[in-house]
Structures are given as C-alpha cells and as structure tokens.
Recover the amino acids of this structure.
C-alpha cells in the first residue's frame, strides 16, 4: 500500500468517525394531545406577535422525557417540542424555550441547511458518475456540514430569542438564565437532526453573558 | 441451407429457455410480497351523510389554506426534509387537499399558501404509523414470510385565524390497517392500493364539512357569498 493510499484510508475513517459523532441527536417521541399542550399554544400565540410575520402558525407539542433529555426540539413543518419534565416550570421559562424555537423557524434555519446539504448531495451524485462509490459521500459530509453551519445559526437564533422575549415584556436575561438552567440539569437542544448539549451550550452561555453585560 | 440448420438446432434451446423463463416468472409472481390496505373508521365521520346535502348559500371567505404535513413513525416525528421522495409525498398531500377543496362551495375563494387573505386555515396533517416495531423489522428481514400489520391513522388538526386572532379549531381522523405478507397476488380481494389516499381525502372532507357548517357564524364578516 502506498503512502498516499494509507493516508486516504485514514482520512476516510476519520471522516466516518466525525460523521458518527457529529451530534446527530436521538429523535424525540411525541406525547399526543398532552393536557399542557393548550398552555404551550397560548404562550406561542403571544410570542409570535413579536415576529415580523405574526400571522404564521407554530405547532407546540410535548415530548416524552428521555435518557438524554432534550429541553426544546425544533423540527420541520414549524413544530416545537418541549420536554414533559419541564412543564412544571413557570410560563416565562417555557416562553424562553418556545421563543428560541420560533427564532429558528423565522430565520429559516432548516431551509438553509437543506439547501447546503442538497447541493452537496447533488455534487456527490454527479461525482458518482466519474468515481464509483463517490455518490455515497454525502452520507459522511451531510452531518458535518450541518454541524458546521449550526454554530453560526445558534448564535443568530440566540440573538433573535432575546429580541422576541424583550419585546414580549420579559427580562433581557431570561434566555441566558434558561440556557444556564438547561445546561446545569443536563438537558440539550435539538434543531433538525443536530443536537447540542454540554460544552456547546456553555460556549453559547459565555457569549451571551458577554453580550448582555 | 446453413440458416435452416441453425434454426432447427435452436428450437429445443428456445423451448427450454421459455420454460425456464415461465418458471422464474411464476416463482416471482407467487413470491411477490406486498401489503393489503383496509380503510377503517373515521371520526367524526360526517362525510358519509354529507353527499346528498342541499346547496350552500352562506359566506365564501377569502381564505389562505396552509398545510403542514408530517409523519409520526411509532411516535417519533418525521418531517419532510430535502429528499425527492419526501418532497413528492408533500406535493401529493397538497394535490389531494386541493381536489377536496374544490368540492366545497365555502372554499370557493380559498387558495393554498396564499400570502394575503382575510382568513387563514393552518392544517397539520399527521400520518401516524403505529404497530409493533420489532415484528415489522423481523417481517421486513424475512421478506414478509412472517406477516405483520400496522394500524395507521391520518390525523388532521386545523386552526382558523382571522388576522392574528385564532377563532376556531377543528379536527378529523381516519384510520386504516396495513397487512404485510407474502403471496399478495393470491389474495386480490385484499388489494386496496389507494386506501391511505382515500382515507386522507375523507378526513379532509370531514374537516371541511365542519367548517362549512360553522361558516355562517365563523365567517359572518366575510365579503363573498356563494352563487
């Protein structure tokens, strides 16, 4: 085996490992028609009035608590899931989580990721005509590209969340306090297929602290 | 002379090839696995009595209908991401919705995804797949030699808005059963290929009948009227 082939092999293995560990979160499980769903929808209906398109509807839903709990999951078709174990908290806390979900939807983060991954997929498919096997390359690069774009998207969603909450009459630091709470209690966040927890959350908390100082 | 010899020699070969092909086709047809769909009940199930109703003379509002379709696979939400298959599925649901909308005079001024409208109707269409996940996996691995079944539902939740104010909520649900097994071709009476589509259309009808019944009170301020 030539030196080049060995290096190429290692690169492929490393990329596969990175793709596997790139933060693909476990899917959430819905609790249909939860008793608290009406409360979440009421909070969403007041929050969406602060957005540039208040007529747009968002579907607030409750998810089952999991081993690796996800406080808020922002999924396709304008759905926002809140972990059932957090429903005992006050309206302000839930408003912060829901405002963050609305911020992701309003900033079209799913759509932007879809365009990037779609272009990537198309490029690999074309490449597959010339290099056998290359058409499957998107399976490796897809989660990597999503993770790469998500950091920037999270920062913009955090800013938007603070803006919506302030406009709705909540404290400027509400989102920071909510993030600190979910990070301390081991909760995570999920946007599409990508999950955030632990250090990713603490980095965001640090940036928000500096910003709101 | 040479061509005749070649033709005579090829006849037995051709016969055996034909026999072989027929055997393969018969085996393939018999072994073809598939699913049998059976539509089940609807809630509230208004569409069964609705067909013979009298002409509508109520208000016809300027309405924007926004559809949010999704799958709920064993309780796990699955949205429509950027894949051709899922895009086609979303388009399919949209087309069915538009076809059903044409049957209702109250929706005469309704448009799908219209930006400007007096009223907005948001519909969440959930195609939920329920059943035994383990059995389904085993059944799939064995190419349905071990049969499995699913109890699926198409659940519609709708929110009607006037401007930014939510004025009414509607819901409808349709159930159907899917059975996966081998030798599907031997049971043609069980084929009901478009059962999910029909269940979806009837669920949409159930939803719009409720809206049409409520129309005089809900769309009281609407400018249009049925001709």
């Amino acid at each position: 085996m030539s030196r080049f082939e060995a290096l190429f092999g290692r690169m492929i293995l490393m990329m596969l490992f990175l793709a596997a560990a790139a933060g693909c979160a476990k899917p959430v499980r819905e609790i249909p028609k939860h008793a608290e769903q009406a409360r979440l929808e009421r909070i969403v209906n007041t929050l969406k009035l602060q957005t540039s398109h208040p007529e747009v509807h968002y579907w607030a839903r409750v998810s089952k608590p999991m081993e690796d709990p996800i406080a808020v999951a922002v999924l396709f078709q304008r759905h926002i899931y809140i972990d059932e174990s957090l429903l005992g908290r006050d309206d302000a806390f839930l408003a912060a989580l829901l405002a963050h979900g609305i911020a992701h939807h309003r900033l079209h983060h799913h759509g932007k990721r879809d365009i990037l991954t779609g272009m990537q997929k198309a490029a690999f498919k074309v490449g597959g005509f010339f290099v056998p096997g290359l058409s499957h390359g998107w399976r490796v690069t897809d989660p990597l590209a999503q993770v790469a774009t998500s950091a920037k998207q999270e920062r913009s969603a955090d800013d938007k969340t603070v803006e919506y909450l302030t406009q709705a009459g909540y404290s400027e630091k509400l989102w920071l306090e909510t993030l600190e709470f979910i990070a301390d209690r081991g909760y995570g966040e999920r946007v599409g297929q990508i999950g955030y927890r632990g250090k990713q959350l603490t980095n965001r908390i640090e940036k928000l602290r500096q910003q709101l100082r | 002379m040479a061509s005749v010899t070649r033709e005579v020699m090829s006849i037995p070969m051709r016969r055996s090839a034909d026999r072989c092909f027929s055997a393969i086709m018969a085996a393939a047809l018999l072994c073809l696995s598939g699913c049998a769909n059976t539509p089940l009940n609807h809630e509230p199930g208004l569409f069964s009595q609705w067909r013979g109703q009298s002409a509508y003379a109520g208000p016809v509002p300027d309405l924007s209908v926004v559809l949010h379709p999704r799958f709920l696979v064993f309780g796990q939400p699955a949205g429509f991401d950027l894949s051709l298959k899922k895009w086609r599925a979303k388009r399919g649901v949209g087309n069915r919705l538009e076809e059903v909308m044409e049957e209702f005079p109250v929706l005469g001024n309704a448009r799908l995804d219209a930006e400007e409208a007096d009223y907005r109707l948001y519909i969440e269409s959930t195609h939920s797949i329920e059943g035994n996940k383990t059995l389904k996996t085993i059944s799939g691995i064995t190419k349905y030699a071990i049969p499995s079944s699913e109890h699926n539902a198409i659940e519609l939740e709708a929110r009607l808005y006037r401007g930014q104010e939510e004025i009414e909520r509607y819901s409808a649900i349709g159930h159907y059963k899917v059975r996966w097994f081998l030798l599907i071709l031997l049971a043609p009476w069980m084929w009901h290929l478009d059962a999910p589509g029909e269940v979806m259309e009837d669920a949409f009808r159930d939803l719009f009948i409720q809206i049409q019944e409520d129309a005089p009170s809900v769309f009281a301020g609407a400018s249009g009227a049925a001709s």
Strands of chain B lie at 34-43, 63-73, 76-78, 110-112, 119-131, 148-162, 165-181. Chain B touches chain A at residues 66, 68-70, 72, 75-82, 120, 122, 124, 157, 159, 161, 163-164, 166 (CB under 8 Å).
